[in-house]
């Protein structure tokens, strides 16, 4: 039967265990955060870490929150020549992931690079993954389909094995070429505007 770390290192007051705890407390891996502001041009955020640290101050343990982290790169789903973007707002939740070493060179070039300076799991090397459903789950979550939607569900694009359903008050499609092929196209809502040339629609529209 395997032993726990406490059994291997002894009680928490032992120097060995204290050294291990001190090292562990200095390593950042991941934590939730709250967006303070978003720079849409650079796709970076200022983030307030939302978990406090236990810090020994004058022999007493106190809860201290890490400082706001500035210019944190946002993980945006992208590949090839395409990306999925979000209108990130203050108050949105995120996961902060802290890199093994300095990310400055990689962030600037997107290519293999040597670390600009030596540091590990530092607050300066955070990256933000936006979109945790903390503080309230998404109402009407569809467990059987892919959806792009507003949180209120007033506008949705639903994709499942039966087809694609677009539901919105206003539908505005702007593209050089619009081609819709299929047995049925369902567009629910108010006015529909299609801007483009040519527009080629094959199927039943209702």
Architecture overview:
The chain is mainly beta and 206 residues long. The chain has 2 domains: 5-130, OB fold (Dihydrolipoamide Acetyltransferase, E2P); 146-205, no CATH class. Helices cover 11% and strands 42% of the residues. It has 3 helices and 16 strands. The strands form 5 sheets. It has a 5-stranded antiparallel β-sheet with strand order 5-2-1-8-9, with no helix packed on it. The longest helix is centred in the N-terminal third of the chain and has 11 residues, at 15-25. The chain is elongated. The mean pLDDT is 83.
Briefly summarize what is shown.
The chain has 206 residues and is mostly beta strands. It is 11% helix and 42% strand.
Helix-strand layout with pairing:
Elements: H1 5-9, H2 15-25, E1 30-39, E2 44-49, E3 53-57, E4 60-64, E5 69-73, E6 78-79, E7 82-83, E8 93-98, H3 104-109, E9 126-130, E10 146-149, E11 156-160, E12 163-167, E13 171-174, E14 178-188, E15 192-195, E16 199-205
Parallel strand pairs: 12-14, 13-15, 14-16
Antiparallel strand pairs: 1-2, 1-8, 2-5, 3-4, 6-7, 8-9, 10-11, 11-12
């Amino acid at each position: 039967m395997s032993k726990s770390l406490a059994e291997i290192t002894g009680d928490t007051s032992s120097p060995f265990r204290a050294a291990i705890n001190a090292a562990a407390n200095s390593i950042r891996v991941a934590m939730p955060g709250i967006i303070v502001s978003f720079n849409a041009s650079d796709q970076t955020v200022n983030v307030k870490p939302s978990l406090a640290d236990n810090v020994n101050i004058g022999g007493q343990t106190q809860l201290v929150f890490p400082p706001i982290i500035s210019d944190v790169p946002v993980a945006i789903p992208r590949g090839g020549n395409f990306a999925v973007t979000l209108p990130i707002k203050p108050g949105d939740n995120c996961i902060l992931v802290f890199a093994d070493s300095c990310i400055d060179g990689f962030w600037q070039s997107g290519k293999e690079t040597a670390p600009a300076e030596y540091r590990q799991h530092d607050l300066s090397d955070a990256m933000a993954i936006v979109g945790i459903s903390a503080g309230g789950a998404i109402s009407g979550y569809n467990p059987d389909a892919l959806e792009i939607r507003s949180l209120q569900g007033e506008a949705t694009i639903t994709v499942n094995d039966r087809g694609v359903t677009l539901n919105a008050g206003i539908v505005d499609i702007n593209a050089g070429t619009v081609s819709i092929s299929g047995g049925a196209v369902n567009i629910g809502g108010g006015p529909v505007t299609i801007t483009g040339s040519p527009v080629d629609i094959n199927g039943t529209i209702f």
